[in-house]
UniProtKB/TrEMBL annotation:
Protein name as annotated: Alcohol dehydrogenase-like 6
Organism of derivation: Schleiferilactobacillus shenzhenensis LY-73
Keyword line: NADP
SUPFAM superfamilies xref list: GroES-like (SSF50129), NAD(P)-binding Rossmann-fold domains (SSF51735)
Taxonomic superkingdom: Bacteria
Pfam families, sorted: ADH_N (PF08240), ADH_zinc_N (PF00107)
Residues annotated as domain Enoyl reductase (ER): 14-302
Alphabetized GO MF terms: oxidoreductase activity
Length: 306
């Protein structure tokens, strides 16, 4: 008899109430894979968008998981049953999920599961912005829009570690949060006209705001030879030698990015801000998506012991 497990997802599109509970077969690991019994899940805007659009078949979303290895596949030598891990996966809205070894990192006891789950997509995306796409160098001026968010906050910290001068842009109400991340300068977009005070200022302009809002502003704030890295899929009209790169949490850098981010959180050189931790139930996932639909600062997490 095939073992089953609880999972959470959607078929029809709509608001948070479109989420539902499924009974599905428990996963089995393939070669170079592990099964993780999920203890916490980080929620992401991509999942909110997927939920709004819906699907023609039951869909279990989720990329971010932290938990305990419960099975290992052929060829796995770096993980064992019982290991605490964090992983960049598919289908994490479930009691168990499968993770590739290359997208899994061991989790020290000093990092709890909700914190670990909160850092996956945001951490991988931030790493790629700073090191893969941005190639940020010491002394460069980096403007980070959405500096109070999950991705933006980690970009601020990683860019500072790379030796950049970092300007954080966020709402005035989030000033203390952003200042605590170590920005060299804070600009409140709801108190100042950022295209005036930051015109042609950034060697790198990072747009980590919701859906990459205000892309035309990015061009104005970039130096004539500047680089724009944005979560927006749409390239704005550029000027001079400015370049544009859409960023995304690809898994080809997981093997480097995940251990680096985990180590930073473990030794307190990186801060992951969590807005809410909700219970690992259908009601908890619905509440999490309601939070994704509204204004929030920091990450939304669903966890078993919330």
């Amino acid at each position: 008899m095939t073992e089953t497990m609880k999972a959470y997802g959607f078929t029809r599109g709509g608001g948070p109430s479109a989420l539902q509970e499924f009974d599905v077969p428990a996963p089995q690991p393939g070669p170079n894979e592990v099964v993780v019994t999920v203890q916490a899940v980080g929620l992401n805007n991509r999942e909110r968008i997927a939920r709004e659009q819906g699907s023609s078949r039951p869909t279990i979303p989720g990329r971010d998981a932290a938990g305990i290895v419960s099975a290992v596949g052929a060829g796995v030598t770096t993980f064992a049953v019982g290991d605490r891990v964090v992983a960049h996966v598919q289908n994490s809205y479930a009691e168990q999920t499968v993770a590739r070894v290359s997208s899994t990192a061991k989790l020290p006891d000093s990092v709890d599961f909700p914190t670990a789950a909160a850092l996956v997509t945001s951490g991988v995306t931030a790493y790629r912005i700073v090191h893969t796409f941005g190639r940020i160098q010491p002394g460069e001026v980096v403007i980070v829009k959405g500096a109070s968010g999950g991705v933006g906050g980690l970009v601020v910290q990683l860019a500072k570690q790379a030796g950049a001068y970092v300007i954080g842009v966020a709402s005035a109400r989030n000033r203390i949060l952003v200042d605590d991340l170590g920005v060299d300068r804070f600009v409140a977009y709801d108190r100042e006209k950022i295209t005036q005070v930051l015109a042609e200022t950034g060697d790198v302009v990072v747009n980590a705001a919701m859906n990459g809002a205000g892309s035309d502003q990015d061009v104005v704030m970039a130096k004539p030879t500047g680089r724009i890295i944005s979560v927006s899929h749409s390239e704005p009209p550029l000027r001079g030698q400015i370049t544009f790169q859409h960023t995304y949490p690809g898994d080809d850098t997981d093997a480097v990015a995940l251990p680096l981010i985990v180590a930073g959180v473990a030794d307190d050189t990186l801060i992951v801000d969590i807005d809410q931790v909700l219970p690992f139930t259908l009601a908890g996932f619905i509440a999490g998506h309601e939070a994704l639909d509204s204004r929030h600062a920091g990450r939304i997490v669903v966890a078993r012991q919330a």
